[in-house]
Amino acid sequence: MKNQMGFKLELILVLVISFSLMWSLPALASTDTTQVKVSLGNSAGELKFFPNHFEFVAGQKYKLLLDNPSPTKHYFTSKDFADASWTQKVEAGKVEVKGAIHELELKPGAEAEWVFIPLKGGTYELHCSVSGHSEAGMIGDIVISAQ
């Protein structure tokens, strides 16, 4: 009798935990994705991000559409932001990368998509890590606010 009662309690516990997880992770399973466009420089060769300020909400899914219309390569670098986010994928051309991402290099004319969910609130520095680009003004910030 004790064995059967213990089994029932374990089964109930497993069901409760399963349903709790199913209801607490809707943002990760959500198909609603907010698209945000960002250009790394422009055709005139300006060393800036367009835009250079981003605001995201923790738990919501985003697709960052990056392009580099400039004649030189640029980096979208924000290690702390990347560490505070879950990356679903980065897609460029016919390549899809999964796993931790800390920076993206876009060569002239390149395009990429970064699908992620911010998890940890805060303000994070954004910069281009090509020598001299940050000092010339290719910087920005990324703000993640709580849900």
From TrEMBL:
SUPFAM superfamilies given for it? Cupredoxins (SSF49503)
Q: Which Pfam families match?
A: Cupredoxin_1
Q: Which InterPro entries match?
A: Cu-binding_ET (IPR050845), Cupredoxin (IPR008972), Cupredoxin-like_Cyanobacteria (IPR041716), EfeO_Cupredoxin (IPR028096)
Kindly indicate whether the keyword Metal-binding belongs to this entry: yes
GO molecular-function terms, A-Z: metal ion binding
- In terms of superkingdom, the source organism counts as Bacteria
Keywords attached to this Swiss-Prot or TrEMBL record, sorted alphabetically, are: Copper, Metal-binding, Signal
Keyword check for Metal-binding: yes
- Signal peptide start-end: 1-29
Domain EfeO-type cupredoxin-like, chain residue ranges per copy: 16-133
Record protein name field: Blue-copper-protein-like protein
> From which organism does this entry originate?
Gloeothece citriformis (strain PCC 7424) (Cyanothece sp. (strain PCC 7424))
